[in-house]
Structures are given as structure tokens and as C-alpha cells.
Design goal:
heterodimer; A: mainly beta; five-stranded antiparallel β-sheet; 2 helices; 13 strands; B: alpha/beta; seven-stranded mixed β-sheet; 6 helices
Chain lengths: 158, 202
Amino acid sequence: VRLALAMMLLGSAGLPVAAATLGGDIAGGDALLPAHEAFVLAARRPRAAMLVLRWRIADGYYLYRARMHFSLHHAGRAHLGKPRFGPAQMEDDPILGRTAIYRDQARVRLALHGTPAPGATLRVRYQGCNAPQGVCYPPIERDIALATLEPARPEPTQ
Amino acid sequence: VKSITRTWLVVIVAALLGLGAGAGFRYWRDTQARAEQQREAAARARDAGPGPQDVIGRAAPDFTLAGVDGQRRTLNDFTQGGGLVLVNFWATWCPPCLREVPVLTRLDRKYGPHRLRIVGIALDNPDRVRKFASRQGIRYPLLAGSENAFEVARRYGDRQGTLPYSVLIGPDGKIRATHMGQLTRDKADALIEPFLPSAADS
């Protein structure tokens, strides 16, 4: 029986070697991050009437404040207040003039007026670039279902 | 004697079962790994396609896109002149692309259409492109499109549609060099000069 066990072990040995070498194809010269890794967007709903968006922006990348757009869809009669932008850096761009940009991180607060319908989505558009290489990403559009953003605390009942 | 034979029989059967199970598991695992690899490769091909370095040496993919003058153009319209062709993917929403325009205009003047033709492909709205072009006095041909222009960019090695992206095509229709990012004067000259026919050839 001991031998049989040994044979069984032998039979299954030599297995876990092969599949270790996948991935890791770094295309030379094109070291740009995928857009969703360069600009990592997270949404929160700290209160029923408040949406907070936060981007973590990879080193060397930036977002344009003027290219951030927010809209509610399938929300019934609920609507968004004017976006309140976190502090941005002002830069003098030879083409755009005085331009607000975000490095490292960006934060936007959106007041949510009224009770959104169950299938409501927040559409976020934003656009950014990589400074060292002088390249820009096409505008990005993300739809976030409000149902996935439950308020952190239930509303105080009256 | 009989019991010894029986013990050996058990041992041999167990061993065979063990080998069989091992081989079976290995086969299952390899199949899984192969399926996983195929899925990954398919995802890569869909999301990524070739990168800027991968397309060098390949034949430049043909395309048909509308010019901002309303005429439809193909790659052939530009390569048949016998010189180099610099395809510049850009957009009005891309500030580094706009900064690059004077560099391209200078190249256009410096080399002339017989040695180097510049073609701008805007991943953008044709009206916006036309307005910008007339304001800036861009003289080289401009094509524009939305998804179809993005698709051309992807086939030329621009995985994510990041801009600007420049591709140098030889007279034989093969891609000679690519550059992802804003071209400065020096970078543009360094990209093109190695592939210009020398004065003695012309």
C-alpha cells in the first residue's frame, strides 16, 4: 500500500511547473497605463443627497477640470446640483490659456436633489493626459448605477 | 504465497490508478490552461491589438476615411507619390496635438510633398477639425472620423487611441517608424531623416 501511495504521488508529480510563464509582455516604447489604471475613479454616496467622486491619478498623469461632465440618467425627477470641485492646480497652457488640472487626485461633490428612480445612473465624463510623453487619452465615459452606491448611513427618520 | 500475490496485485492496480489519475489531472489542467491562454489572447487582441513597436516593418493597413473637404481618401492616394508619408493621428480635444501642429507645418514646408506627405487623421468631429484647420492655416490634407478613425489608429498600433500618434510609411507602403506623443522639432527630424533618400539618390 505504501508503494501504491508512492506511485500515486509520482503520477501527479511534475505537474505544477508549466503554466508559470504567461503575461509579462512589455511592449517597448509604449509604457502608457490603460486609462482605467491611470485614472482610478471611485464613487461614494455618504448621504442620500450627496455623491462624491474621487480619482486617484497615477504619477505623471493629469485630468482637465473643464473636461469633467456629470449627468443623471433614468433618474425620474431627481437632478444634480452644480458640481463642487476640489482644489485644482492652475497652469498656463500655451494653447488653452489658464487651465485647471488635477494631479495625484481629484475630488468632486455633487448634490443630489430629489429621490432618484430605482434604475438611475450617474454618467461621468472625464479626460486626461500623460505629461512626460505628451499624450492624451480620448474622453472617458463611465456609467455608475446609483443602486450600487447605498448611503453609508440610513437617513434619520422624522 | 497466495496472499503475497494478492498484495502485489493490489499494489499494481493502485499504482495504475494513481498514474491514470495523475495523467487525467494533468490533461484537465493543460486544457484549462490552454482555454485560459486563448481567452487572454482574445481579450488582448480585442482590447489592445498591436502596439507602436509591433507594426514597424509591416505593410501599412489600407483605410478609407472622409477628408474634411468632403472627399473620401484611401492610403493609396498618399503613398502613390513615391515619397515618405507621415500619418499623424490627432484631435482638437488633445492639447499636445495642437502644440504639434506648427512642427508638422514646418516639416511640410521643409521637405515638400515629393519627399514627405503629411496626412492628419483626426479622431474628432469634422466640423471642429475644419474650423481649427482654417484658423491655424493647416495646408496638409486632413481626414476625420469617430469610431472608424479610432479603428484605423488601432490597426496602426495605437492600442488605446492615445494622441498624438505619428506613423512614418515608406514608399513601399511599409511602416518604418512610429512615435507616440507630441513631436518636437528635434524628435520629428530624428524620426524622418534616417528614411529620407539622400541627395545623391534623387
